[in-house]
């Protein structure tokens, strides 16, 4: 362990702020725990408001230089960041498994997601293109161009402590922005290691200060960032509760917000679904990452013709899943992040029982060190209000339906709108699910579960999920400012809309 930490530039007690190198922080000490054992890994001395002030000043200064670097040259530096992440993939993925309890293939997969982002952003750096329009005036030209925006504030959650940063940071880099990253206090070591790997590349290229990291409390550092007019864009990933606060505060100063918040994602298993495919898709969506993805599957709507046989197969699959050491080969189920998460799981199970849900599998804490719970399947007949809540744990609520339209309506009936899926071999059912009156989510899949999206698409969702889009497609537009330009190369000054003003 000590070797792994030192290879990643970490020590027993780490500074909580980095801007063109480590800063010396003096705040309270926060320990990061291995959720599989409950043991401390290493700790961080938190940063304070004075550190924040140093960082924002430097981020603004660095912006003046960084924005003038041609985008493809910025892309070339992002290519080098991708290489550095490749080089450290194994160590970083392992650290993530240790710090947040993801099974190793998911820890490595997350670093791969960041590498994929780097590759995407290299190409993106040559494609930040605007439209041209035809002017109504003779000898005039109209077009749109995209400029770097400034300092971007990136707030991330514990569950994707590497890739969600990369979704934002690498796009912001090619867009010409500088950035301040505030990670979750539950996964600070992965954040420091990620920052050190990537910022080394920035420093070697003469651009230290473009990327910075601040680990501090929400009440001072988080608040300062959210309210700071020097940060034109805050991109925040986390709970709906957090997003409501951040969204309102940023709106108060008329700043721009990119929110990627909770989900209460459902899979519909239609009567003609391929059973094996559907069981695997549902199990990965609901049990993978111990149900701690914003895209985790939380609700299942199964056609009444197959509900008994499908549920039986699913429960058999659940019963075969053993919890284990996230680093051990073959482990499918790791721990929840901390004791609070176990309490939240137990509180939800208590509500299930009180509200009349039938627990078919799981429903309790696993008796071993760390924060393990049994993945749980709940059969719902009638109403179960707790199923409308996003519990960040592996609890799956199974409903039955007869009409597809009804299943889609019930799927859409929750507050969040992140991810959704249908398993079917019917072309009509699939298209119906994807139609304007189909799924209301930002992500809608056919014969694929709700989680594990590729970075090439825009990622995010509607309603209480916050409406933001990160990662691929044209998400880069959120990190740049648009400018509409009209150029007159005629000897006259005609006015638009036929207005005359002759003096
Ligand atoms: C998250 O849980 O916040 O689609 C992100 C997925 C991953 C990202 C999840 N690519 O499940």
Structure overview:
This protein is α/β, with parallel strands linked by helices and 503 residues long. It has two domains: 2-261 and 466-483, Aldehyde Dehydrogenase, Chain A, domain 1; 265-446, Aldehyde Dehydrogenase, Chain A, domain 2. It is built from 14 helices and 23 strands. The longest helix is centred in the first third of the chain and has 21 residues, at 104-124. The mean pLDDT is 98. The chain binds 2-aminohexanedioic acid. 2-aminohexanedioic acid (UN1) is lined by residues 113, 159-160, 164, 237, 293-295, 451-453.
Q: Can you summarize the main beta sheet?
A: 7 strands, mixed
Task: Using the coordinates shown, work out and report the CATH topology of the largest domain.
Answer: Aldehyde Dehydrogenase, Chain A, domain 1
- Measured by DSSP, the beta-strand proportion falls in 15-25%
Bound ligands, each once: 2-aminohexanedioic acid
Describe the global form.
globular
Uncertain segments:
none
**CATH H level of the largest domain: which superfamily?**
Aldehyde Dehydrogenase, Chain A, domain 1
Q: Which structural class fits the helix and strand makeup?
A: alpha/beta
User: How many distinct beta strands?
Assistant: 23
Q: What is the oligomeric state here?
A: single chain
CATH class of the largest domain: Alpha Beta
Q: Tell me the span between the first and last alpha carbons.
A: 79 Å
Mean pLDDT: 98
Which architecture of the largest domain would the CATH scheme give at its second level?
3-Layer(aba) Sandwich
Q: Please tell me the total number of domains.
A: 2
Helix content: 25-40%
What gyration radius follows from the Cα positions, in whole Å? 24 Å
Structure annotation, total helices: 14
């Amino acid at each position: 362990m000590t070797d792994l930490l030192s290879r990643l530039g970490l020590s027993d007690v780490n500074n909580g702020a980095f801007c063109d190198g480590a800063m010396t922080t003096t705040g309270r000490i926060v320990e990061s725990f291995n959720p599989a054992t409950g043991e401390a890994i290493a700790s961080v001395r938190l940063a304070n408001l004075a550190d924040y002030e140093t960082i924002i000043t430097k981020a603004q200064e660095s912006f003046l230089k960084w924005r003038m670097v041609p985008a493809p040259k910025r892309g070339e530096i992002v290519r080098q960041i991708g290489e550095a992440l490749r080089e450290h993939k194994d160590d970083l993925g392992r650290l993530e498994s240790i710090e947040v309890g993801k099974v190793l293939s998911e820890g490595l997969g997350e670093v791969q997601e960041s590498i994929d982002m780097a590759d995407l952003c290299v190409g993106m750096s040559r494609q930040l293109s605007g439209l041209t329009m035809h002017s109504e005036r003779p000898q005039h030209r109209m077009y749109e161009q995209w400029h770097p925006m400034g300092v971007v504030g990136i707030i991330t959650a514990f569950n994707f402590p590497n890739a969600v940063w990369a979704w934002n940071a690498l796009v912001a880099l090619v867009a010409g922005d500088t950035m301040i990253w505030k990670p979750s206090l539950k996964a600070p070591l992965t954040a420091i290691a990620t920052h050190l790997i990537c910022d080394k590349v920035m420093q070697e290229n003469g651009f230290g200060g473009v990327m910075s990291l601040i680990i501090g409390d929400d009440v001072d550092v988080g608040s300062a960032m959210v309210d700071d007019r020097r940060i034109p864009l805050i991109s925040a990933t986390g709970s709906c509760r957090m997003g409501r606060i951040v969204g309102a505060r940023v709106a108060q100063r008329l700043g721009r917000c990119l929110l990627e918040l909770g989900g209460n994602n459902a899979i519909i298993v239609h009567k003609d679904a391929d059973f094996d495919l559907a069981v695997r898709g549902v199990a990965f969506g609901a049990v993978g990452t111990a149900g701690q993805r914003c895209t985790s599957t939380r609700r299942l709507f199964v056609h009444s013709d197959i509900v008994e046989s499908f549920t039986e197969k699913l429960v058999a699959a659940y019963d075969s899943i053993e919890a284990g050491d996230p680093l051990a080969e073959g482990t499918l189920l790791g721990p929840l992040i901390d004791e609070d998460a176990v309490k939240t799981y137990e509180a939800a199970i208590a509500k299930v029982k009180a509200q009349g849900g039938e627990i078919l599998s799981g429903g309790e804490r696993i008796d071993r060190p760390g924060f393990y719970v049994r993945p749980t399947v709940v059969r719902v007949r009638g109403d179960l209000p707790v199923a409308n809540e996003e519990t960040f744990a592996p609890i799956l609520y199974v409903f039955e339906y007869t009409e597809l339209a009804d299943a889609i309506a019930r799927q859409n009936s929750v507050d969040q709108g992140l991810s959704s899926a249908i398993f079917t071999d019917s072309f009509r059912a699939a298209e119906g699910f994807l139609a304007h009156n189909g799924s209301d989510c930002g992500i809608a899949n056919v014969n694929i579960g709700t989680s594990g999206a590729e970075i090439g698409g825009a990622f995010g969702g509607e309603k209480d999920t916050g409406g933001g889009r990160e990662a691929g497609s044209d998400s880069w537009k959120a990190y740049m400012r648009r400018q509409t330009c009209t150029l007159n190369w005629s000897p006259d000054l005609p006015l638009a809309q036929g207005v005359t003003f002759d003096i």
